[in-house]
Amino acid sequence: MGYILNTTNDYHIRTLNTLGWELTVCNALHPEDSPCRQILKNRESFGTQLFHSLEKIIPFDRLKNVLEVGGGLGYLMRDFLSLAPHLQATMLDISPFLLQKQKETLNGSPVNFREMDFLKISLSDLRSIDLVILNENLGDFPTLVFDESQPKQNDPETIRSIKRMKDYMEEFDLEFAPKENINIGAMEVVEKLCGADIPYVYISEHSCEASMNNAHFPQHQFTARGVPERITLKGHDEFTVKFSHLQKIARSFRYRVIRGQYIDLFPLDFSDRLKTALQSPTPLTDEQEIIQQFVYDLYKYEYLVLIKDSKKKG
């Protein structure tokens, strides 16, 4: 018995050529006529709504350099730059396909583009950044997956990741259940960002600790699994994220942590359209299927905003 390191790098570098089948919340809210917009109190795009939520706690007018890691098709950054055109943006992505899409979306904006693995970036390259965004992509980072049939692990990268897991247990007092999948990559991301003293960080992903308990929709409620779950997608597997571990790491670096679910950022408009779409366990139309999945995601996604305390880690 042992761990296997699940990584999506090869898929994103060599295979990925579309996001059409992987509908993120950001992409679902992109079309102006999206049915997902119609069931929200605020019917603007994802990036616009996120910006206005974050500006209550992040002083965008005092920021200069923003870095988005894994920026998808570039929609979020396009919205941010339209609302804060003074920002100097960098898009960093491991996928050449997605980086090209970002260049097309952000054409005409003064944006830098870097094709690389974020986990390989140096702390010195990060120290000039005021805000880092990782939106809906932490599950793409490496995960240690427990495998009953794995007799012994000889892969150097897996051995290194297992050692890092043990280091995290000791340094940050993290606990893992027996046979639990470990979000090792997501933890390394947060440790790197905090170690670079980034003033502001926003991250989000499907959470294994989120639940839905809404009396309006009893047929669609779900409870938190508590441990990272496999999400099987085209050509690769991703994993839900244990946000309490990331929260604990950030706090050890003396960051103030604001945590919530997407439903806090994108509140629903309890209209007849929404109620009709969710009144039965299974959808009756394509639109109802889209709405049911979208509402599920609003509860399943969690986010963290990390704000650097003036005191250093001690």
What is the terminal-to-terminal distance?
38 Å
Mean pLDDT over all positions: 93
Number of domains: 1
What's the helix count? Answer: 13
Instruction: Strand order, main sheet: write it out.
Output: 4-3-2-5-7-11-10
How big is the Rg?
19 Å
CATH architecture: 3-Layer(aba) Sandwich
Largest sheet: 7 strands, mixed
Quaternary status of these chains? Answer: single chain
Low-confidence stretches: none
Question: How many DSSP-defined strands?
Answer: 11
Features:
Rossmann fold; 13 helices; 35% helix; single chain; 314 residues
How would you summarize the topology of this molecule?
Elements: E1 2-6, H1 9-15, H2 25-28, H3 35-38, H4 46-54, E2 65-69, H5 75-83, E3 88-93, H6 96-105, E4 111-115, H7 123-126, E5 131-134, E6 143-147, H8 156-171, H9 184-195, E7 200-206, E8 230-233, E9 236-239, H10 243-252, E10 255-261, H11 262-265, H12 272-277, H13 286-300, E11 301-308
Parallel strand pairs: 2-3, 2-5, 3-4, 5-7
Antiparallel strand pairs: 1-6, 7-11, 8-9, 10-11
Mind explaining what this structure looks like?
- The protein is an alpha/beta fold.
- The protein has a single domain, classed as 3-Layer(aba) Sandwich (Rossmann fold).
- 35% of the residues lie in helices and 19% in strands.
- It contains 13 helices and 11 strands.
- The strands form 3 sheets. The protein has a 7-stranded mixed sheet with strand order 4-3-2-5-7-11-10, sandwiched between helices. It has a two-stranded antiparallel ribbon with strand order 1-6.
- The longest helix has 16 residues.
- The radius of gyration is 19 Å and the shape is globular.
- The model has no long low-confidence stretch (mean pLDDT 93).
